[in-house]
Amino acid sequence: SSTVAFRQARGRSDLISFSPDRQGNVWVATQTNGFFRLNPNGSVSHQHWPMRGDTVQRTLRALLTDRRGRVWLAAHDGLFQYNPKTGQFI
């Protein structure tokens, strides 16, 4: 069910930010378990953990989406942009 998928993606981390996009998805950021997209059908995608390929334990502070569909992440060590179409971070 969607509740189970949401709980698994969230882990035991505190939720810190929600941001809907124009496609009806909701982007969710957790403090220490990364971020993910909750799709309209209840499935989870674009799940990213802050330690993935990273030597720093990244703590997220906020998440917002813009009109172009980009996801902006504010972390303790800077501002990052995630492009869901390419999977790239800037």
Question: How does this model look, in words?
Answer:
Helices cover 10% and strands 43% of the residues. The chain has one helix spanning 2-10; strands spanning 15-20, 26-30, 35-38, 44-48, 60-65, 71-75, 78-83, 88-89. It has a 4-stranded antiparallel beta sheet with strand order 1-2-3-4, covered by helices on one side. The chain has a 4-stranded antiparallel beta sheet with strand order 5-6-7-8, with no helix packed on it. Strand 7 (78-83) and strand 8 (88-89) form a beta hairpin.
Keyword list:
4-stranded antiparallel beta sheet; 90 residues; 43% strand; mainly beta; globular
Summarize the structure.
The chain is mainly beta and 90 residues long. The chain contains 1 helix and 8 strands, in the order αββββββββ.
What is the structural class? mainly beta
Bin the helical content: 10-25%
Order of strands across the main sheet: 1-2-3-4
**What is the subunit arrangement here?**
single chain
Give the helices and strands, then pairings.
Elements: H1 2-10, E1 15-20, E2 26-30, E3 35-38, E4 44-48, E5 60-65, E6 71-75, E7 78-83, E8 88-89
Antiparallel strand pairs: 1-2, 2-3, 3-4, 5-6, 6-7, 7-8
